[in-house]
Structure formats: C-alpha cells, structure tokens
Design a protein that fits this description.
Elements (H helix, E strand, L loop, with lengths): L1 E5 L4 H12 L3 E6 L11 E4 L5 H8 L4 E6 L5 H11 L3 E9 L33 H14 L4 E6 L1 E3 L7 H11 L1 E6 L5 E2 L1 E3 H14 L3 E5 L6 E2 H11 L4 E6 L1 H6 L27 H5 L7 H15 L7 E2 L2 E2 L4 H12 L1
Parallel strand pairs: 1-2, 1-4, 2-3, 4-5, 5-6, 6-11, 7-10, 8-13
Antiparallel strand pairs: 9-12, 14-15
Length: about 325
C-alpha cells in the first residue's frame, strides 16, 4: 500500500510509520519537522496541515491508497485535509478518541454510543475540549463518506515514545525509589493499549479495506492499578515501595484525579466507567494487546536511552505529577 501519514514523527504516528515500513508499505509523512525526526525509508514532505497551500503542494502529482491521521484536534483541520485529499486518496483513517462519546467516563460506551454534538464546520482554533473529536469525525464523514472512512476511538495509549508522559512519569518516580503513593483501589481495573498494538490493528483494517468505527483499547479488566504500578516498580529495579492511599484521603488532600497521580480516577459516579469501554467489535476484528509488563519494560528502556527530561510532562497545559512535599504529607498520614 501507498500510505500518507499526517504527522508521523511522535508517539502514535511514529508507531504507525514504523509498522507500515516493517510491512513493506510505501509511506509519505507530512509534518512541520518540529516534534521529531522522520524515520529512514519515508518520503518526508514538510508543511502545515492547517495551510491549504501546503496541502495543495503535498497532493500535487501524488496519490495514496490510504491516509492515516493521528494528529488532528480541530474539526476545521480535518475538514481542510479531507477536502483536499479526497481526490488523491481512496480511504481516510482518523484516530479519534473515546472522549468523543457523550457518556464517557460516567457510563460504558461502544461504537453505537452517542457522540458530543460538535458540528463539522466548527471554526478553527477552538479551546481544547472533548467534543472537538466528535466534530472531527463529522468533518471526515462529510468528505469521505462512511464506506471510505475508518474511525478509531482511541483509549489510553502507553508505550515507548509517549509524549504526554503518564507512564513515563510513574517510571521516573519509581526509579527514585523509596515509599511511593499508590492511589485508590489497587484492584481497580484499567484499559491501557500500547501504541504499537493500536497501529498494527489500524493497519490491519486498512489492508482489509475496512471502514466504520472501532473502539480501540485494551479489553475491560485486562490489568489493574496494582499490576500496572507493580510492573513499573519491577522495570525500574524494584527500589520503590508502593503505599496504597485510598480515594477519600486523596480527595481530602485535594489531589487532582488523572493529573497529579496520572491515571488515578476515584470511585465516584462521574468516573464510574472510565475503564469500561466495550471493545468487542475491535477484538472480533483482530485487535491484540501485549501484556502490560512488556509495554512498561519497553518504555523504561526507551526512557533510559532518551536520557533525563528537563521539562515537565503536561496534561494540556497542566504539569503531570504530584509535588514531592504533597506526596510526603500523604505518606506521613498513611503511616500514622
């Protein structure tokens, strides 16, 4: 196949490119060249996906079997790309998010769940919001139609080259050793998918000419908070000791869910189904997810190769991770 990847140099886009090249596909990447290096073997085209002139230069004299879009956050960006790429590509695969569903994370979601009412023609440069992914989906469907569109509603991605930093933050904290606050119920189940498995599944679907929507994440119950954090301890040498602190104590200390202790969600109604997305359709279509310990080990190996990070990981504009003094206070309370 001849594949165009919009982006292609960081995390999920990088995983798509690596897997496509491994399978022998021809790959073109289109990006500004700012977030990472293109991999050997691709045709790299520089440009801004929000620029009609740059996109017109990209498509001039080129045609692809499929487009893979891992980077769009704004409906206007998808609408522009889809409109200009439609005469030059047979199919368009868009990586959406589980955030696009209205009911998530309070109630379980699946392919038929309602999405946020965000229109396809939403003006550009909107503030970050979950609803925007739903608008992106509608913009794609307007230009490529249902049969030529493949929408993958992504769950929580982990793995090497993660650029948000949820798993890297935990690994770097465990590597420091000592007593570490482990949040909430240790047996709370989670759904974490390695970016490499996500990319392999997405390419499987494109190779089969599949369209439609797939909720793409690990199956419910595939791991627990205890298994995940224990894997982090083991991968980093076993110098950390997990100290479990319950939801009530964390909320009383005003610990921000999801951010200060990445991926912790309290057992409250608004978070009740955060890890209960229905993945039956994707699994029936061949989605396979590697063991969580493998993803953790490989991510730690990448971090060690990359070297120390000098800037904080960010959830949007908010730094990830709990302040050391706040963690010490929680540990003292747990010991008393």
């Amino acid at each position: 196949m001849n594949i165009l990847v919009l982006g292609g140099t960081s995390f999920l886009g990088r995983a798509y490119v690596a897997e496509a090249l491994r399978r022998g596909h021809r790959v073109t990447t289109f990006n500004r060249g700012r977030t990472g290096a293109d991999q050997d073997g691709v045709e790299a085209v520089r440009g801004d996906r929000n620029s009609a002139a740059d996109l017109e230069r990209l498509v001039d004299g080129r045609r692809w079997d499929a487009v893979v879009d891992t980077s769009a956050q704004q409906p206007a960006a998808v609408a522009l790309a889809a409109r200009l790429l439609r005469p030059h590509a047979d199919r368009y695969s868009f990586v959406s998010s589980i955030h696009a569903f209205t009911d998530w994370p309070a109630r379980p979601v699946g392919e038929d769940s309602p999405t946020h009412p965000c229109p396809a023609d939403t003006p550009p440069d909107q503030p970050s919001a979950n609803a925007l992914k739903a608008g992106c989906e509608r913009a794609l469907l307007e230009h490529f139609g249902a049969e030529q569109s493949l929408i993958l509603n992504c769950g929580l991605l982990i793995g090497p080259y993660e650029n948000i930093g949820r798993l890297p933050w935990w690994l770097e904290r465990m590597a420091q050793g000592g007593r570490v606050v482990a949040p909430g119920n240790p047996d709370r189940t989670m759904q974490l998918i390695d970016a490499r498995d996500f990319a392999a599944f997405g390419l499987d679907l494109l190779e089969r000419g599949a369209g439609g929507r797939y909720v793409t994440t690990a199956p419910p119950g595939s791991t627990t908070m205890r298994e995940w954090l224990t894997a982090c301890v083991d991968a980093t040498g076993g110098r950390a000791e997990l100290v479990w602190v319950g939801d009530e104590a964390l909320l009383a200390a005003e610990v921000m869910p999801w951010v200060e202790l990445p991926l912790w969600s309290p057992d409250q109604p608004e978070w009740q189904a955060v890890w209960l997305a229905d993945t039956a359709r994707a699994r029936a279509a061949g989605l396979n997810c590697r063991p969580i310990a493998e993803s953790v080990r490989d991510t730690w190996a990448w971090i060690r190769q990359r070297g120390p990070r000098t800037e904080p990981y960010l959830q949007g504009t908010v730094p990830l991770g709990i302040a050391p003094e706040k963690e010490r206070s929680l540990l003292e309370q747990a010991a008393s």
